[in-house]
Each structure stands twice: as structure tokens, then as C-alpha cells.
Amino acid sequence: MDTPTPRIRPELLLLVSIASVQLGSSFAKQLFELAPPWIVVWLRILSSGVVLSVVAPPRLSGRTRLEWRRVLVYALSLTLMNVSFVMAISRIPIGVAVTFEFIGPLAVAVAGSRKAREYLWAGLAAVGVALLGFAPGALDVTGVLLALLAGAFWAAYIVAAGPAAEHWSGVTAVTISSWVGAVLLLPVVLATLSSGTTQWAMQPRVWLWGLALGLLGSVIPYALELRALRTMDRGVFGIMMSLEPGAAALLAWLVLGEDLRPVEVAAMVCVVAASMGALRGSRAAPDASLKP
């Protein structure tokens, strides 16, 4: 008699996915010592495209203009979200950046609900943002704006994900998006090289770190999230993904030694609580959380 294969609980898969994404962010910031932020984000996107092309190659032939237009909008949103976020964490702590960024999916969740109490959650999130904005020892303004911009593109990505998924199965839309992003950022990479910043390109460890970033930030989390969603309640999925700011802060502290002040922790708690409350009753919850 065959012994049944033990099934891994979807909650555990999701926690590993969250840890993978945020660990990738900490490693990306660590890589800034060897390569400029623009190069780091390009390496992450490029390596994601290479790996996903092997494990999830998309069907390219026979596609309509509508299908290409939808995946390109999705790709542009995803690329700009990644670029904005990486540039943000080059200026402000990762936990704070993720807290600001999470305003994007929270806004989508609130907008997708017609219940009056959802606006109370939005107010709680606004309190958190206000705590960050007016706390002593002001944060880098450019970094904050970049994090908020990343949140806006995350919201755009959420909206674009549904139409793209109608025509591109599994993670094939992410495969296409990764290559689109890599091509869009190539002129910046070439400009960096022409300016004399070439040391990073000669170091094999930079390329290996880039591969690790693609695996941690895109390939592993997406595979785990898709598997978790097969058996997991989508509302619970959205609520658990609200843990991302806390996970980001914890891993940044462990890997980089980034400390958060009490007021920043309080702000994060406000945003996480607001996200959990809003996503709990929102149909947008799972889509708001899936982010490679």
C-alpha cells in the first residue's frame, strides 16, 4: 500500500513566499555596494526572464493585438513598480518603503468595496503614513515619493493582471513582462557602462547575485503563491500577504541591520492592520497581493 505524500499547508507556502520576496529585497540593497541600483533592478528582471523562459515558456505564435496590448500594459506596470521600489530602498529603509508601497494595493481593495467601513481602514492607513511623514528625523523625500510611486504602479499592476491572465496562463505573463522590462532598461544599462561604471560587469558574483534576486523575487514566490491558491481561501490569502511590511522590516534588520524607530513601527502596524481589515472583505485581496 502506497504511503500518501504529505501535503504542505498553503499557509506555510505563503509564508515562505513572503520571506523569499523580502529576503530578495534585502539582498538587492546589499548588492548596491557592488553595482548601482539601476543595474541591480535590471539584473533581477533579466534573471527572472531567463529562468521563467525555461520553466514557463509562453506561447507566442497566434497571439492577437489585444492579447499583446494587455500583456504589455501589465509588463510596463510591473517594470515601473520594480524600478521605483529598488530606487526607493536605495534611499530609505526597506520596511518603511514597503509600508508606503502597500498603500497601492490597499487603495485598490478599498476602491473595490462599497462598504462604508472600508473607508475607516483607509483612514487608519492614512494615520500610518502621517506618522511616517511627520516623525522627527524626516525621511528622504525622494525615497518616500519613489515608494509611493511603486505603490501606484503596484495598483496599476493589480488592475492589469486580470485582463492579462485571461489570455496568458500561469506565470507566462510574468515571463513576457520580465523580458519587456529587461529590454526597456537596457538603454540605461548601456548608458551606465558608457559612463565608465563597468566594474560590476566584470565580477561574476554580481551576476550570481542577480540570478539569486530573480529567483527570490519572482520565480520562487510566484510558484509558491500559485500552488497555495489551489487550496487556500482567497480572503485568507490576501490577509496573510498584509504581513509583507513586517516581514520586510524583520529581514532588513536581520540581513542589513536596519533599525526602525518606534514611530515607524507604529506606522507600519497601522498600515498592516488597515490592509488586513480592508482585504478581509474585498474581492481584490488575492490580486492585490500577487507581486513578483
TrEMBL record:
<feature type="transmembrane region" description="Helical">
    <location>
        <begin position="94"/>
        <end position="112"/>
    </location>
</feature>
<feature type="transmembrane region" description="Helical">
    <location>
        <begin position="236"/>
        <end position="256"/>
    </location>
</feature>
<dbReference type="InterPro" id="IPR037185">
    <property type="entry name" value="EmrE-like"/>
</dbReference>
<feature type="domain" description="EamA">
    <location>
        <begin position="142"/>
        <end position="276"/>
    </location>
</feature>
<feature type="transmembrane region" description="Helical">
    <location>
        <begin position="145"/>
        <end position="164"/>
    </location>
</feature>
<feature type="transmembrane region" description="Helical">
    <location>
        <begin position="68"/>
        <end position="88"/>
    </location>
</feature>
<feature type="transmembrane region" description="Helical">
    <location>
        <begin position="38"/>
        <end position="56"/>
    </location>
</feature>
<keyword id="KW-1133">Transmembrane helix</keyword>
<dbReference type="InterPro" id="IPR051258">
    <property type="entry name" value="Diverse_Substrate_Transporter"/>
</dbReference>
<dbReference type="InterPro" id="IPR000620">
    <property type="entry name" value="EamA_dom"/>
</dbReference>
<comment type="similarity">
    <text>Belongs to the EamA transporter family.</text>
</comment>
<keyword id="KW-0812">Transmembrane</keyword>
<feature type="transmembrane region" description="Helical">
    <location>
        <begin position="171"/>
        <end position="194"/>
    </location>
</feature>
<feature type="transmembrane region" description="Helical">
    <location>
        <begin position="206"/>
        <end position="224"/>
    </location>
</feature>
<dbReference type="GO" id="GO:0005886">
    <property type="term" value="C:plasma membrane"/>
</dbReference>
<dbReference type="Pfam" id="PF00892">
    <property type="entry name" value="EamA"/>
</dbReference>
<protein>
    <submittedName>
        <fullName>EamA family transporter</fullName>
    </submittedName>
</protein>
<keyword id="KW-1003">Cell membrane</keyword>
<keyword id="KW-0472">Membrane</keyword>
<feature type="transmembrane region" description="Helical">
    <location>
        <begin position="119"/>
        <end position="139"/>
    </location>
</feature>
